[in-house]
Amino acid sequence: MNILIVEDEKRLAKALRQILLEQKYMADVVHDGNDGLDYGLSGIYDLIILDVMLPYRDGFEIAAELRRNKVETPILMLTAKDTIHDKVSGLDSGADDYMTKPFAPEELLARIKALTRRRGEVILDETDFGDFNFNASTSTLSKGSKEVHLNFKEAEIMKLLIANREIILSKEDIITKVWGYDSDAGSNNVEAYISFLRRKLNFINSSTEIKTVKKLGYRLETRND
Amino acid sequence: MNILIVEDEKRLAKALRQILLEQKYMADVVHDGNDGLDYGLSGIYDLIILDVMLPYRDGFEIAAELRRNKVETPILMLTAKDTIHDKVSGLDSGADDYMTKPFAPEELLARIKALTRRRGEVILDETDFGDFNFNASTSTLSKGSKEVHLNFKEAEIMKLLIANREIILSKEDIITKVWGYDSDAGSNNVEAYISFLRRKLNFINSSTEIKTVKKLGYRLETRND
DNA sequence: GAAAAAATTTAAGGATAATTTAAGGCTTGT
DNA sequence: ACAAGCCTTAAATTATCCTTAAATTTTTTC
What we know:
2 copies of one chain form a homodimer. By secondary structure, chain A is an alpha/beta fold. Chain A folds into 2 domains: 2-117, Rossmann fold (3-Layer(aba) Sandwich); 126-221, Arc Repressor Mutant, subunit A (Orthogonal Bundle). Helix content of chain A is 39%, strand content 23%. Chain A has 8 helices and 11 strands. The first copy, chain A, has a 5-stranded parallel β-sheet with strand order 2-1-3-4-5. In chain A, helix 2 (33-41) packs parallel to helix 3. The A-B interface holds A 67, 77, 81-82, 84, 88-89, 91-98, 100, 167-168, 181-182, 184, 186, 213-216 and B 84-85, 87-88, 91-92, 118-124, 126-128, 137-139, 149, 151-152. Chain A binds a DNA duplex through helix 6 and helix 8.
């Protein structure tokens, strides 16, 4: 996975790159709008992280220019808190998501996953989340020596939960993604499976839990944060 | 944005139109299935709101016929609460989303936004107001390290307050927008929720307050002292 | 192919959180 | 002080969610 970082604040750019490298992403950094546009036009990136305020050309210009040139690379826009309203709202420059500075690395990673997943990219077969490990190719949930097998639907839901980390997953989302858009599964089906998953997380003594947010959905949460 | 409303219940149709006009959408209303199909076939609409039960032709027929004629306009189907099975046939016949009656205007607007969203359009799910931050996708109010969850109606009201920052929001406005056009909630319901919100703003130590303007309503205000 | 096992769905009652109701206290303006 | 409008809180009600067991369907095994 190749990521381009366009950010003139050198300290932040470096920190971003560090976070990405730790997650085994490849990351290039450029510091101004001209370079950002040139590099972006190459089309070799899977994602562009683009600051709004940049020397020579701002982020909106770059995004619009990339789209005009049929570059479809997902763009994650970074904005300072006070510029959200006058600039971002009602905008149609071509960005796919935006994030306000400062932000937590967790959130950055969650958004990157969401953006790059849309393009058919699929998840690693093995993931650590909180204190447990999930192996998607064997559908196994484990922590230490404890291990338990997930059946098909349980595994699908676990994948969704992991892929959406900090984001709340609605039951409708889960139904359309796991059962299919035209299924007649009801919300109780989801509830039942969430219950099964909780029992299994509990069985391996994981302290990670599936939290419910009433009327909105579910999210995975590690107990110490 | 041009919207077609196909609804035979005249009171509801009128209320729907009113809600849409307030949001600067253009809205046409027709009251039976024949007109609904004719108008829909014109292809000039960006969205069709379609009741299921209609004179002459029901919503499913119309949706199916439109799709057969290559009209790709997004369709939002309205169904009565007890006809759960409608969901399936609705999606089969070509509708893109469905909503059960009665519904709150805010939910309607959210679904309209989702259906008419273009690729690349940025979604603002996070807002700063005064000294706090409100994340609409998780319904979380935060300031610094303090954080508190808002339940559904609290969140709806907070969204309204933030969206109407400069304007005084009357209780009637809040009731019709959050509880629905034909709800029998009274002003005390609003008062109770305003009280809940104030307690939560206080809990995160925000200096922003919900100010009461007697006989008129409420507005958010940052304290300048 | 039939029996057994596993996975999935359904249904019902209990648990929990959201919402409404109601009653008494507070403020503000006259 | 009084009335009107608003605030706050606890208790009552309701909606949503959880959990489980049993029923059903699908898959595996013999």
